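This week, think about what follows.
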Amino acid sequence: MSDSVRVVWDDGLIGYDFGPGHPLAPVRVELTMALAKELGVLDHVELAGCAPATDDDLARVHTREYIEAVKQVSQWGAPDVRHGLGTTDNPAFPGVHEASALVAGATLAAAKAVWTGEAQHALNIAGGLHHAMPATASGFCVYNDPAVAIAWLLENGAERIAYVDVDVHHGDGVQAMFYDDPRVLTISLHESPRTLFPGTGYPSETGAEGTAVNVALPAGCGDAEWLRAFHALVPPLLREFAPQVLVTQHGCDGHELDPLAHLKLSVDGQRAAYAALHRLAHETAGGRWLATGGGGYALVQVVPRAWTHLIAEAAGRPLDPETETPPRWRALVGERMCESAPLSMTDGRNPEFRDISDGYDPADPVDRAIMATRNAIFPLRGLDPLP
């Protein structure tokens, strides 16, 4: 299904590091690239480097004052809590501007490759920092790389961009930056804001002309329920919107092993979501697909496997879930993390689900979440909310 596929990578991307003990440890990206290489996944993509985003690039979505504040923190390592740097979530560190600008530059390079036709699909697994706001850092995110890329696409002729965010946390920063812009459809499937940061992402947040879509799922939701919600909302909305580019954020922190959230997904369920988004990119966006990483804090057991599946899916060579993890990668995990690596690329789950067309159950909290979003959004998009 795939044509040309580019993975944007620079060793400097692991410099986005808030320090020992912080959940967003860059080793998760390092181990992902190592696993993808050992499994031969990277043999079927083009690896390309990138440059840091410039101040002008960043200023498409961030204020100049904020960029200068990050630079000051970057130079001295002193906190600036007014701009969200120096908090528990976003510790200040020397070089934070340079590291953050490189992440944004990698996603921007992927966007340019897709829009110019240099690649049909492009990925930055170190990206997906979706919480950063125009004038403040938030939720481990300093510069909002998906928003930087979307803003560049709009400036360079794109008229309809769809952004689908499957991170367990609401994609609040991207939503906020394009909330009043009908050219950008943002869809976020996340754990309910009643139980998880950032406390936003209710179905009533509908944006311009129904272009902000929020699916707030109850804690404990597993593969079957999550996929039921995804298929009840994402495909019909993408088909109606007909984006020219599909941008996706693939936080894998909805996994049952993730220490920061309360959903119960498996790597198998996440792999099924990647395959669905790949198909939808071809069906609705002419194959133009820009994918990023995102959250994910089970650093060994989940993130490397999930994002290796993502790269393999984008390359059109999905891995057999029963594939064993390579011995050399397991040894690397032991050396880097003093932890036993997973033995295969599956959690042994069969991610089947019932489609919403089978009927709505008002007693089911997931079905109630689905219908709350359909009732809020579908009439605004000229769609029938009833299953």
